[in-house]
Specification:
Structural class: alpha+beta
Largest sheet: 6 strands, antiparallel
Strand content: 25-35%
Radius of gyration: 17 Å
Helix content: 10-25%
Number of helices: 4
Order of helices and strands: EEHEHHHEEEEEEEEE
């Protein structure tokens, strides 16, 4: 009935007690523990949008919003609260990350990454044919070699910082600050890449 009215069906999935109806939802929402349940949230939603429903002041900080990038989860917000109208710093944080998250979400999360990191604290996720997200989950700065399986991009660009990186034989080296994230847009991939999946 909602879809016939041009509306979307969303549910608060904060504790994932019953995941059996997730395929019926258009949007998956989470109030709590996105740091812990992000892997399950993205897996259950697959290509559908996932959004958080912030409740605490720390949910409107850059550190918390940055945690959404790895799995292209949208940091939510209650517009009626006036936070966005009153706080230009908060708007700037959303402007920095939300367009990147939107591009990742539109490309679609792919469980087969075709990429690996040589550092157990640097995780790799793939979106569509051209994006990788990298997360350093440690409290220390880390440097990792990222290797693509059978793919040879010419270069890449971090959509968050704008920095470019060179690739050689399907490998590049990245350095991430503690608990930092990068969104790598691969450049110069062959068109046949998509057909390999």
């Amino acid at each position: 009935r909602m879809r016939k009215q041009g509306k979307f069906v969303m549910a608060n999935m904060s504790v994932l007690p019953f995941p059996f109806a997730t395929h019926l939802l258009d949007i998956h929402g989470y109030e709590w523990n996105i740091e812990r349940v992000a892997v399950a949230a993205r897996t259950l939603a697959y290509h559908k949008p996932v959004v958080t429903l912030p409740l605490r002041p720390e949910h409107y900080t850059e550190a918390w919003i940055r945690k959404h990038v790895r799995f292209a989860i949208f940091p939510g917000g209650y517009g009626g609260s006036g936070k966005f109208a009153k706080d230009p710093k908060l708007r700037a944080i959303y402007k920095k990350y939300v367009p990147v998250i939107r591009d990742l979400a539109e490309a679609g999360w792919e469980p087969i990454t075709l990429a690996r990191s040589d550092d157990e604290h640097v995780y790799v996720e793939r979106f569509g044919r051209q994006y990788l997200t990298l997360l350093n989950d440690s409290p220390d700065k880390r440097t990792a070699v990222i290797t693509l399986e059978g793919l040879r991009p010419a270069s890449s660009r971090d959509l968050v910082t704008g920095r470019s990186a060179a690739w050689r034989d399907g490998k590049t080296t990245v350095t991430l600050d503690a608990e930092d994230v990068a969104v790598v847009e691969l450049e110069g991939l062959p068109r046949s890449f998509e057909g390999r999946i």
